[in-house]
Amino acid sequence: MPDKWEYPWYASWDLAFHMIPFCKIDPEFAKSQLLLFLREWYMAPSGQIPAYEFAFNDVNPPVHAWSVYRVYKLTAPKGQRDQLFLARCFQKLILNFTWWVNRKDPEGKNVFSGGFLGLDNIGVFDRSKPLPTGGHLEQADGTAWMAFFCVVMLDMALELAMHDASYEDMASKFFEHFIMIVDAMNAAGNGEGLWDEEEGFYYDVLRFRDSSQPLRVRSMVGLIPLYACLVLDGENTHQLPGFKKRTEWFLTNRKDLQSRITFMTEEVSSDGKPSRILLAIPTLAQLKCLLKYLLDENEFLSPYGIRSLSKVHQNKPFVMFVDGSEHRVDYVPGESNTYLFGGNSNWRGPIWLCVNYLIIEALERYDYFYGEKLKVECPTGSGNFMRLKDVAKEISRRLVSLFEPDPVTGRRPCHGDNDTYAKDKFWKDLVLFYEYFHAESGRGCGASHQTGWTAVVVNCIERMFA
């Protein structure tokens, strides 16, 4: 838990982010914390990881596997990593993945719902309660989180398979499941996915028996599909004959999936062998659409990082009437203007470092595949084109600037107008790691001692000087 005063309880998805910077201080402690949530006295027999201590049964984004694999890679160089730690976690994470599939995919269509998924008030409705409209909500972020979970498990299985061939079967399982989730998001079997072709964005969709309605709120919900991408090294996959054979069979016999989506792009080296394979939710065309929104300063790109809700909703709030009651989403860059989830949390505009950090990592993976072949305008409309790894550095720079003192006034954006932190010699170097940040001023909001996931700024600093 981040501290014993303001935040004296754990949240499992927060802890996953805590361990990314913490593993640089104490690798063994970081690994033990991640294992703890997978032990019998924390994980339910069904495979569910408890959300937090006052609501075990709530639903947090499935980022535990990602944290396990990142800590595994960050704590030792290649060839010296803790295989036992990875294998122990992998076995229990299979249970957690199965719990998600069984409990959160109501129609078996690989489209996930059922819970607010950690983003509190980001939606039109409280997503942890029954919908006032009837029907059910297919969540773009819930489905994308599961695709992200899937590719991380695939990557882990391939890593373990290099030392134990029995893991090849699990790698094949996660490969196939990922493709089915991507198909469901982009063009489900009934021809209705979560991608809005007209607007070039992913939206939650209300499904009824005979109709459906996209909820066109441009928010982090539609950017989370960026996370679910993985670059497979062709040489490594050729060393795994079982996995290679199974994937080739799947691609040969499931032409229906190949015909609708570009879930796999292969780059061929000069000797004719595949050098890299990209698995991702968005096609290249969809990726470009999403990046155009992401890097637009009138949409998501703030001076201090990526907003959780597009600034376009400042003048064009999303409004929906249900049985005479108004449901609306406004752009609110600072503290929440509603009392949902206690009011001390807001995903309708502010900067949250946790989701920003996952965007940065995803951009680096896309760049590893596309390299010089894909350059985008940053900011959108500026005429300044750059590779995605440089876009990742630019977002990192903006996040780091939250904590940097102004050379003239000494003020750090995160401390707002507080003179004590700007001028007092005993206080000016004491930096508060807030829970989230005002998207326009950079002022810290929410819990002031939420040192946990905000500490990933350390990893952003590393990227700036890499």
UniProtKB/TrEMBL annotation:
Coiled-coil segments on the chain, per record: none
Biological process, per Gene Ontology: oligosaccharide metabolic process
Domain Glycosyl hydrolase family 63 C-terminal residue range list: 283-372
MF GO annotations: Glc3Man9GlcNAc2 oligosaccharide glucosidase activity
Segments forming domain Mannosylglycerate hydrolase MGH1-like glycoside hydrolase: 7-112
Taxonomy, superkingdom: Eukaryota
Protein name in the entry: Uncharacterized protein
UniProt source species: Ciona intestinalis
Lineage of the organism: Eukaryota, Metazoa, Chordata, Tunicata, Ascidiacea
